[in-house]
Amino acid sequence: MKIHEYQAKALIQSYGIPIPRGHIAKNPEDTLKAAQAIKKGPFVVKAQVHAGGRGKAGGISIVETPVEAEAFAAEILGTRLITGQSGDEGKPVHTLLVEEALLSKMEVYLGIAIDRSKGCPVILASARGGMEIEKVAEESPGMVITEEVHPAVGLRPFQSSRISYGIQFEGRLVKKMSAIIQNLYRLFIDKDCSLAEINPLVVTRDGEMVALDAKLNFDDYALFRHPDIVALRDLSQENPLEIEASKYNLNYIKLKGNVGCMVNGAGLAMATMDLIKLSGAEPANFLDVGGGATAEMVREGFKLLLFDEEVKVIFINIFGGILRCDTLAKGVVEAAKELSIDLPTVVRLEGTNVAEGRKIFAESGLEFTIASGLGEAASKVALALRGRSVL
Amino acid sequence: MRYAPCRNEMSILIDQNTKVIIQGITGGEGAFHARQMKEYGTKVVAGVTPGKGGQKFEDVPVFNTVRDAVENTGANASAIFVPPPFAADAIMEAVDAKLETVVCLTEGIPTLDMIAAKQFMKGTNSKLIGPNTPGIISPGKCKIGVMAGYIHIPGRVGVTSRSGTLTYEVVDQLTKLGIGQSSCVGIGGDPIIGLSFVDILKLFEKDKNTDIVIIIGEIGGRAEEEAADFFRKNMSKPVVAFIAGITSPPGRRMGHAGAIVSGGVGGAREKIDTLEKTGITVVKNPAEIGETVARVLAVRKFA
């Protein structure tokens, strides 16, 4: 799960990491007031959206006066910001963060992530702050400092000071940097983060260290124990169909094609999308109803496909394991009857309770094209799509 | 369907002598799959549900703790069907009771919990499969997992995968061509897992009754690249691979927590290139995996 920069900053501040003075604003008037409350310019006004690359996309403005801040707010609030990471439809801007613009002597990068192969959290730091760490790693790998954290004993003080010295800090800055690393690590563990990033972390002219930007992502699997984090979710930043899907624990991602697919299991769902593409069509979505899907989840998943206006043909590809074929069939037939579908639907069923599942489809009184085998299913989908475009 | 045990055939990790306990046997999924495993012929010797010790699940005795179950039945493997908040603890309990093979089917375990569980396992002899896996099956001998048994037939092809249902798809293609499997192991789709592709490849390379291995990978992470590196350095047996997710957009998590392409790392095309360079046969069309294995086997026969 993602949260906004201002939310991330409030969290890191509560863990003792300094952030610039600032306020959020949801309209031009409040933007003016927010800047006035900071008193001294220049100010930086930042659009709060769940996508990186805001600066290049025009989502961040540095202004000298509160009136200019207000003008920028009037211009950007209510629009959709399209950045390199936002997707073509962009993300709606409804909140701005107004901060004092700080002059920095030095910018560093600090991040914490999970190293999958090593099975532990890893601290990443670099004296090249302000740019993407992936780019730094590619262009000058020697500039990225890493420290693996022992899962049982946690981040040791020698490790945080080794990072600080590695960045070429001295004296008081070593202490400040080490404390920030320790605090960010504490937050990472306390809140089950999947990524915690301060980029840039700056040294100001008066020798203070301040987080100019902050990004926190959270482990979706751990949200059950963090209601405070769940409360920070901003649904406006997500696709409406994806929100609907998440209510029923479905993994749904909207794509651009016209073959709506419902599959059980992420791997098979991805392979099904690949197959659709190979047969010359485009998948309209990724929809994994999961291993443990109930009839209700399947029904809601099927409805999602029907709500998507781009969808011309539906392809249900289920290999029963945990999800039994009869459960799937019940859900699909219920949804189809409830919504009286008129889209051609190709069904491919195999696995646990497949005979019962096929029977439910056969006795439903509805028209489904049954396929056996992936190859046959793909050609039936392509055929249905052609039939559809002729009509 | 029940197969007669074939004692002269080998497999990896589990066989007809494996004695299995089910952690979470009284839950809905645990109960359903305990029945399915028994029906397949797996020796399900005990169940564990705290607070239900002394009861019976059909004819299977239920214990409060894994240790009790092991002491009373001599079990050496476990299948875990415990809800996500408690599943990492269940893994540690199984490891603490010195079970050799621990298969965790649970999906949705917090990453930090899994890191703790893996740390707990260091220095022990237990092997963890999963979590978020369909499990493992040695066809005709033993199944610890949720896969439909009847799609498998005994044979000489080793299968390993990060995905669940996509593995069934591949196995189904093999079986329909009459090509049997020695063992099929789902390593799981989460970022932190027990045995890796490399660990499974090592076992298949050593197994006298596996002739060829199929790797079913997907976008995200570096597991396939590590497998390719191991193949190049250490394997004599041929490997066929499929990588799911060539059409997946970058930056989006495709269901599996592990399946995300970020910063150019873990993309399907990059993986396919890396694998092909080491001599692994990479199949592009998921409908043609079975045929490709058949072709590679045929070439090998007449080579």
The portion of residues assigned to helices of chain A is 25-40%
Going by helix content, strand content and strand pairing, the class of chain A is: alpha+beta
- The end-to-end span of chain B amounts to 37 Å
Percentage beta strand of chain A: 15-25%
CATH class type of the largest domain in chain A: Alpha Beta
Give the total of beta strands of chain B: 14
Largest interface: A-B, 58 and 68 residues
Q: Which radius of gyration of chain A do the C-alpha atoms yield? A: 25 Å
What number of structural domains do the residues of chain B give?
Answer: 2
Mean pLDDT of chain B: 91
Please render the helix and strand layout as text:
The complex is a heterodimer of chains A (391) and B (303).
Chain A lengths: L4 H10 L7 E4 L2 H11 L4 E5 L12 E4 L2 H11 L3 E2 L9 E2 L3 E5 L3 E12 L4 E7 L6 H7 L4 E5 L8 H10 L5 H19 L2 E12 L4 E3 L3 E4 L8 H4 L9 H8 L3 E4 L4 E5 L2 H13 L6 E4 L6 H13 L5 E8 L4 H15 L5 E7 L2 H9 L6 E3 L2 H17 L1
Parallel strand pairs in A: 14-16, 16-17, 17-18
Antiparallel strand pairs in A: 1-6, 2-3, 2-6, 4-5, 7-8, 7-10, 8-9, 10-11, 10-12, 13-15
Helix pairs in contact in A: 2-3, 5-6, 10-11, 11-12
Chain B lengths: L18 E5 L4 H13 L2 E6 L7 E2 L2 E4 L2 H8 L3 E4 L3 H13 L4 E4 L6 H11 L5 E3 L5 E4 L3 E4 L8 E8 L3 H12 L4 E6 L10 H10 L5 E7 L4 H12 L4 E6 L23 H10 L3 E3 L5 H14 L1
Parallel strand pairs in B: 1-2, 1-5, 2-4, 5-6, 6-7, 10-11, 10-12, 12-13, 13-14
Antiparallel strand pairs in B: 3-4, 8-9, 8-11
Helix pairs in contact in B: 3-4, 5-9, 6-7
Tell me what you see in this structure.
Chain A has helices spanning 5-14, 28-38, 66-76, 133-139, 157-166, 172-190, 227-230, 240-247, 266-278, 295-307, 325-339, 354-362, 374-390; strands at residues 22-25, 43-47, 60-63, 80-81, 91-92, 96-100, 104-115, 120-126, 144-148, 193-204, 209-211, 215-218, 251-254, 259-263, 285-288, 313-320, 345-351, 369-371. The radius of gyration of chain A is 25 Å and the shape is elongated. Chain A is α+β, with helices and mostly antiparallel strands and 391 residues long. The longest helix of chain A has 19 residues, at 172-190. Chain B has two domains: 19-129, Rossmann fold; 147-302, Rossmann fold. Chain B is built from nine helices and 14 strands. Chain B has a seven-stranded mixed sheet, sandwiched between helices. In chain B, strands 9-8-11-10-12-13-14 form a seven-stranded mixed sheet, with helices on both faces. The chains are: A alpha+beta (391), B alpha/beta (303). At the A-B interface, helix 9, strand 16 and helix 13 of A face helix 1, helix 4 and helix 5 of B.
